[in-house]
Amino acid sequence: MQDPEWRRIYGFRVVISAPGSVPPAPRRPFSARLAGFAGAVFILAGIIAVGVAIGAQVHAPQPAASGVTGGGPGPALVRSLPLSVDIPAIGVSSSLLHLGLNTDGTIQVPPLQSAPDEAAWYEYSATPGQRGTSVIEGHLDTYQGPAVFFRLGALRPGNHIDVRLADGITAVFRVTGVRSYGKSHFPAKTVYGATGYAALHLITCGGAFDYASGHYLSSTVVFASLDSYRRAWLTA
User: By three-state DSSP, how is residue 202 classified?
Assistant: First the structure.
């Protein structure tokens, strides 16, 4: 059998070969191959992102529903805006955003794209250490991985939460309880309502992730009360 004879017709390369032989597949232009490679990369990136989200959902610590949601009489501080929060037991150290309400009346949350590792104090709640309920919230995760409150469900009664205030005082809270609530039965009065002592409530998402809505179905809430405080001493 003779070798195929290559010809060019109007810029297209064709092959004339003996009957029954299979002509070699034409090579795709480099730009087309590059576009195909880029498409495959984007598809792979999407698969990886979904995998990360699933992995985060599986491995985020779940609350043990331990302790109590209330507290008793204890110390209290004067109003002072919070600057940062530290939770040594779960490795959290974050500056605090100050956020309020959206136009529809829902509570604002930290920007997921630009500030997933920052927690936020709800500015219409008491300042941490004031008598009443102070609320701090943060994201559980993003498509890139864990966010600031990823391990919030691992806290247990007796753990401490430090909140540094603008007046130089650090308010030290002791965890009294950890709970998981379905968002359809979220006890807003228990979480946001007034108290007769200096309470701190930390909130993040939790439970199963609903891919249809793009949201978690539950919320993890940590309840704490002011245990003590310390002042920052200036040195010359």
Answer: strand
Question: Is the per-residue pLDDT at 2 higher than 70?
Answer: no
Pairing of strands 92-99, 145-146: unpaired
| pLDDT tens for each residue of 131-162 | 999 999 999 999 889 999 999 999 999 999 99
Q: Which residue type does 193 have? A: G
Burial tier of 43 (Cβ tally within 10 Å: 0-12, 13-18, 19+): exposed
Domain that holds residue 129: 64-231
Backbone torsions φ then ψ of 62, nearest 5 degrees: -100, 140
* 3-state SS class at 222: strand
Number of domains in the chain: 2
The set of residues, in sequence order, having a beta carbon less than 8 Å from that of 48 and lying 6+ positions away, is none
Asked if residue 132 belongs to a domain, the reply is: yes
202 and 111 in a common domain: yes
Tokens describing residue 163: 């909140």
Domain identity same for 105 and 208 = yes
Question: Is the domain of 15 the same as that of 80?
Answer: no
Whether 140 and 214 share a structural domain: yes
pTM over 0.70: yes
Tell me the three state secondary structure of residue 88: helix
Instruction: Check whether residue 91 and residue 48 sit in a common domain.
Output: no
| 57 backbone dihedrals φ, ψ, rounded to 5° | -60, -40
